[in-house]
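In response to reviewer comment 3 from the previous cycle, which asked for concrete evidence that the modeling workflow produces usable outputs, we include below a single protein chain processed end to end. The sequence was submitted unchanged, and the resulting structure tokens are shown without manual editing.
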Amino acid sequence: MKNKSLFLLISALIISVNSASADESSMSSHMNMTNSSGSINKITQIRESISDFKMTKDQLKENRKALIETLKEKKQEAKDNREQYKETRNELKDSVKNVTDEQKAKLEELRKSHKVVLDSYKEQLKDTSLTSEQKEEIKTKMLESVKMFNVHVKEILQTNTVANEILEKRIELKEKNAQLRAEAKEARTEYREGRDVLVEKYKGAFEKQLNKNITKFSDDNLEKISTKIEKLVETTQSNTRLSETTKQKLLAQYISLKEIIDEELETRDMLGEDLEVELD
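The workflow returned the following structure tokens.
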């Protein structure tokens, strides 16, 4: 039921922003042959134009599919990296069992201060009034904080070879995930297919409403809605009865909604990460 209610909310948002007219032809204004001279050359040009148009549409469709697959692969890779990072937790604890009292005191002070910073970022991310850009800034700061925590632990344990190897691995995993997030962001931008202005416009409008409700829904429900939106994008792309203006508006709306949902899932993944370490 929650899955259905979220989709109804999304549908209502789209209707409130723009009512699509589904009775217009997207090709009629480009293919009027009433005044054609009837020449073979003219007909050949039209056929070639249609062929090129179809090829371009097919290429774009394949590109969209590839981008969706890329996003899924990067998400899975990031998840695997988080699991590896989590596995280093006990390894790190074991490696620091025989530290000096001075090192232990420094590590505990570092851990506490790191926890305060992380808790602050986590609370900030729960603010439903934040825009995607503001959330992105907080996520970046959070990841940098985690990286610096590992760097500082490494500095304290300079002579502990085992601990340093584990910390190097942890730092590397975090850097990989930061890179994966950047690549995923690029893929989402490419998925817009040049509709940046329209997508940002609708994204800003939808965020104000969705942010208040999206946290109520499970990851599974959000994943299903995201997949459903992907199908709506393809259906709209192939709809020849829509005017080009209406089509572009609808596509921008769907894509902006998908971005909001996917970014929410990314935020949840980050909040669920094993970011803290008990070192005693």
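Residues 43-271 form one domain. We consider this sufficient to address the reviewer's concern, and the full set will be provided in the supplementary archive.
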